[in-house]
């Protein structure tokens, strides 16, 4: 590959990656701030229900991604790759900015969650058109035989977007006081995105159309009806279904387990301090991200299938041992408490409803440096506890501040999961692009990718959190592992289909 052509493709990678990174950033800050958002846009009476509602709203953005894939994929195959994902960029950025502007539930009531849901749906539609366009655009610039390597740079943008979202949130938290962040500072990451979108728009505006698509268009070989040719043609539909059930479905659940579920598990099930979680997850992602390129490059040498299937298989067998180790790392019942340092502080304070609450803060310290804090709020009316279903109405908030040794152990355990992600995700853009002909490529590859990631992957945090909640309520001692059955079963099905029906040779339909 000449220096000139290398320079050319690097400009393509940069232009495509910056925009895609920003769109993932926009999409992920909602998930990264799910715990905070649940207290702002949903009724505060039931924190668990509010959090599950937030996860469901987050998942709604994934559910509509296949519709975005169909709509924008059709446009991309008819009018071009460049202009289509320019539109998706602006749509995503605008929706994200507006989420940061929505008044809280206490101000406008049920209009708050309704508006958030509408904007999440717009985000999902935009992202449904973005990824297929960026991956196709880069692949059609890359030399045959090197597509795995070059498209893997696009694959880093999703993890990079999550990393940037965590860093922006962390920077905002450390800059502002805790009360300021809780009151209005959580909106800042949403507002910041509009500046990033404008920069990306200026970069993308100067891009040229994909040479492969431009050639097909000049020769009159583009499709007049990409949807019909993609899904109405039985031969092509077979490959769409194979791409979905043999690869994208398993890749989707491995992706969201290794990053989003890991984050939610640490914050909600293990009660680890939110800032510590963002930091350790950020380190694991930073160290693991280069492996997207490593496995993308390797897939050019040994084939896409073997690497993706190996990643799924390792995840299937190692998820439960990994999460058991994560849970036990911070389980205070396994640590030695320093009883003499236990403190209980009781205060009364006025809440947002101008009534008085009794707040009890219990702090425990352990010999390894771990600190356990529980804030119990008893809601009072006329000086007496409010009784609901025969019990005093109380809120419990538990926070575990972990020591340095535990922090590095958790970073390592999350890093292993990120490696699984890079194995299944690094080669998949090249794999999907090579399955379909140029004239219907954008449409055909976008749908299985976004059904696999948007439906099977996007629903994972809500489904797995629900399974954990039910198991805990039923007294299951290993309740914290029950949420893993969803990704394990889905990945196992995808692995079996992929092993039997996917060809390991790298193909080209250009």
UniProtKB/TrEMBL annotation:
<feature type="transmembrane region" description="Helical">
    <location>
        <begin position="84"/>
        <end position="105"/>
    </location>
</feature>
<keyword id="KW-0812">Transmembrane</keyword>
<feature type="transmembrane region" description="Helical">
    <location>
        <begin position="279"/>
        <end position="299"/>
    </location>
</feature>
<keyword id="KW-1133">Transmembrane helix</keyword>
<dbReference type="GO" id="GO:0022857">
    <property type="term" value="F:transmembrane transporter activity"/>
</dbReference>
<protein>
    <submittedName>
        <fullName>MHS family MFS transporter</fullName>
    </submittedName>
</protein>
<feature type="transmembrane region" description="Helical">
    <location>
        <begin position="239"/>
        <end position="259"/>
    </location>
</feature>
<dbReference type="Pfam" id="PF00083">
    <property type="entry name" value="Sugar_tr"/>
</dbReference>
<dbReference type="InterPro" id="IPR036259">
    <property type="entry name" value="MFS_trans_sf"/>
</dbReference>
<dbReference type="InterPro" id="IPR005829">
    <property type="entry name" value="Sugar_transporter_CS"/>
</dbReference>
<feature type="transmembrane region" description="Helical">
    <location>
        <begin position="150"/>
        <end position="172"/>
    </location>
</feature>
<dbReference type="GO" id="GO:0005886">
    <property type="term" value="C:plasma membrane"/>
</dbReference>
<keyword id="KW-0813">Transport</keyword>
<feature type="transmembrane region" description="Helical">
    <location>
        <begin position="306"/>
        <end position="323"/>
    </location>
</feature>
<feature type="transmembrane region" description="Helical">
    <location>
        <begin position="408"/>
        <end position="433"/>
    </location>
</feature>
<keyword id="KW-1003">Cell membrane</keyword>
<feature type="transmembrane region" description="Helical">
    <location>
        <begin position="483"/>
        <end position="502"/>
    </location>
</feature>
<feature type="transmembrane region" description="Helical">
    <location>
        <begin position="184"/>
        <end position="203"/>
    </location>
</feature>
<feature type="transmembrane region" description="Helical">
    <location>
        <begin position="49"/>
        <end position="72"/>
    </location>
</feature>
<dbReference type="InterPro" id="IPR020846">
    <property type="entry name" value="MFS_dom"/>
</dbReference>
<feature type="transmembrane region" description="Helical">
    <location>
        <begin position="454"/>
        <end position="471"/>
    </location>
</feature>
<feature type="domain" description="Major facilitator superfamily (MFS) profile">
    <location>
        <begin position="12"/>
        <end position="506"/>
    </location>
</feature>
<feature type="transmembrane region" description="Helical">
    <location>
        <begin position="111"/>
        <end position="129"/>
    </location>
</feature>
<dbReference type="InterPro" id="IPR005828">
    <property type="entry name" value="MFS_sugar_transport-like"/>
</dbReference>
<feature type="transmembrane region" description="Helical">
    <location>
        <begin position="12"/>
        <end position="37"/>
    </location>
</feature>
<keyword id="KW-0472">Membrane</keyword>
């Amino acid at each position: 590959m000449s220096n000139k052509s290398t320079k050319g493709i690097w400009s393509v990678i940069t232009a495509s990656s910056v925009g895609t990174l920003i769109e993932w950033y926009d999409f992920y800050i909602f998930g990264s701030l799910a715990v905070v958002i649940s207290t702002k846009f949903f009724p505060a009476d039931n924190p668990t229900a509010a959090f599950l509602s937030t996860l469901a709203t987050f998942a709604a953005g994934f559910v509509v991604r296949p519709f975005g894939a169909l709509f924008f994929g059709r446009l991309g195959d008819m009018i071009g790759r460049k202009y289509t994902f320019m539109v998706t960029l602006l749509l995503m950025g605008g929706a994200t900015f507006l989420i940061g502007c929505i008044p809280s539930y206490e101000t406008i009531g049920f209009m708050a969650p309704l508006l958030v849901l509408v904007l999440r749906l717009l985000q999902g539609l935009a992202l449904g058109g973005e990824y297929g366009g960026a991956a196709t655009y880069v692949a059609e610039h890359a030399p045959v035989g090197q597509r795995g390597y070059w498209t893997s740079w696009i694959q880093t943008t999703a993890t990079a977007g999550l990393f940037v979202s965590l860093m922006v949130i962390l920077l905002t938290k450390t800059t502002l006081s805790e009360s300021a962040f809780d009151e209005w500072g959580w909106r800042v990451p949403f507002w910041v995105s509009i500046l990033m979108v404008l920069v990306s728009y200026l970069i993308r505006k100067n891009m040229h159309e994909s040479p492969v698509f431009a050639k097909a268009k000049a020769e009159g070989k583009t499709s007049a009806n990409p949807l019909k040719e993609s899904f109405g043609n039985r031969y092509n539909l077979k490959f769409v279904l194979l791409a979905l059930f043999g690869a994208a479905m398993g890749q989707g659940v491995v992706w969201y387990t290794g990053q989003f579920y890991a984050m939610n598990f640490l914050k909600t099930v293990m009660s680890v301090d939110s800032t510590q979680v963002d930091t350790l997850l950020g380190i694991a992602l930073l160290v693991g991200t280069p492996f997207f390129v490593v496995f993308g490059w390797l897939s050019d040498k040994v084939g896409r299938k073997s690497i993706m299937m190996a990643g799924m298989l390792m995840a299937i067998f190692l998820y439960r041992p990994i999460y058991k180790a994560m849970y036990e790392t911070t389980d205070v019942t396994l640590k030695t408490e320093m009883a003499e340092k236990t403190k209980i502080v009781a205060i009364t304070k006025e809440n947002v409803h101008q009534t008085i609450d009794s707040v009890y803060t219990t702090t425990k310290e352990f010999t390894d440096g771990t600190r356990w804090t529980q804030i119990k709020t008893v809601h009072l009316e006329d000086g007496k506890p409010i009784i609901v279903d025969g019990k005093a109405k109380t809120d419990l908030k538990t926070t575990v501040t972990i020591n340095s040794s535990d922090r590095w152990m958790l970073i390592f355990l999350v890093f292993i999961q990120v490696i699984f992600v890079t194995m299944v995700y690094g080669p998949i853009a090249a794999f999907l692009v090579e399955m379909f002909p140029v004239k219907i490529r954008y449409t055909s590859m976008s749908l299985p990718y976004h059904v696999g990631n948007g439906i099977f992957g996007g629903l994972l945090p809500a489904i797995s959190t629900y399974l954990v909640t039910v198991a805990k309520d039923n007294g299951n001692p290993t309740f914290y592992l029950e949420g893993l059955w969803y990704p394990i079963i889905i990945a196992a099905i995808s692995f079996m289909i992929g092993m039997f029906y996917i060809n390991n040779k790298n193909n080209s339909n250009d």
